[in-house]
From TrEMBL:
Listed Basic residues bias regions: 180-191
Protein name as annotated: Menaquinone-dependent protoporphyrinogen oxidase
Pfam families in the record: Flavodoxin_5
Residue intervals of the Flavodoxin-like domain: 4-159
Length: 191
């Protein structure tokens, strides 16, 4: 049985719940899944594949998630990786795809994976972590714009790629940067 790490960062809990939903879907496809918060000592080495997600705050991923991509880039480049981000709130948010922060786009290239898939976010006054969050969570942006059908469908497509080998027996893993360059590359950008 293949094992998958679902690593996430969160400030107000919404992205952690997306990570859990992804994990549930992967488990229903007979994959073994661990869901963990991004941290420096979270090692990807023991996993066949990794899914990583962060909320977007002021057009950036949370530091824990970006640091995780940077610190573990070499290990991540050796296995299939999928990225997601949660953020857009308000009308049409569930269908919105926003660009990834520059640091995340660069990390995706180094790792050899696609830019993150965007899912709608959640702004809930009762979970707000400070005055700005409370203010944001009032009015048109307040609410839960996560579409769990879309989230599960995305996770299901990942499960499909992990459980059904392609005709040539390869996974989708496709390092975008030659190994020699990856080994010496550093991502020198802010979040
Ligand atoms: C102060 C603040 C800034 C935000 N900035 C962005 C942003 O730049 N882009 C975006 O799409 N969503 C933004 N959001 C929405 C959050 O990404 C969304 O609420 C997300 O689901 C929160 O995830 P979490 O509960 O896991 O922390 C912002 C929310 C707050 C409170």
């Amino acid at each position: 049985m293949k094992n998958v790490l679902v690593a996430y960062a969160t400030r107000m809990g919404a992205t952690a719940e997306i990570a859990e939903a992804i994990a549930d879907e992967l488990r229903s496809a007979d994959l073994a899944v661990d869901v963990r918060a991004c941290s420096p000592d979270l090692d990807a080495a023991g996993y066949d594949a990794v899914v990583i997600g962060s909320p977007v705050y002021l057009n950036r991923w949370l530091k824990d998630a970006v640091d995780y991509l940077k610190r573990h880039a070499t290990e991540l480049s050796r296995r299939p990786v999928w990225l997601f981000q949660s953020g857009p709130c308000g009308e049409g948010a569930a269908d919105e795809q926003i660009g990834a922060p520059v640091a995340v786009r660069k990390a995706a290239i180094l790792i050899g994976t696609d830019p993150p898939r965007t899912f709608g976010g959640r702004l809930d006054r009762t979970k707000a972590t400070g005055p700005v969050s409370r203010w944001m969570a009032t009015g048109t942006y307040e609410g839960d714009f996560r579409d769990f059908d879309k989230i599960r469908a995305w996770a299901s497509s990942i499960a499909g790629e992990l459980t059904q080998p392609s005709s040539n027996g390869e996974t989708r893993h496709r390092p975008a940067v030659p190994q020699s360059r990856r080994r010496h590359s550093r991502i020198k950008v802010d979040r």
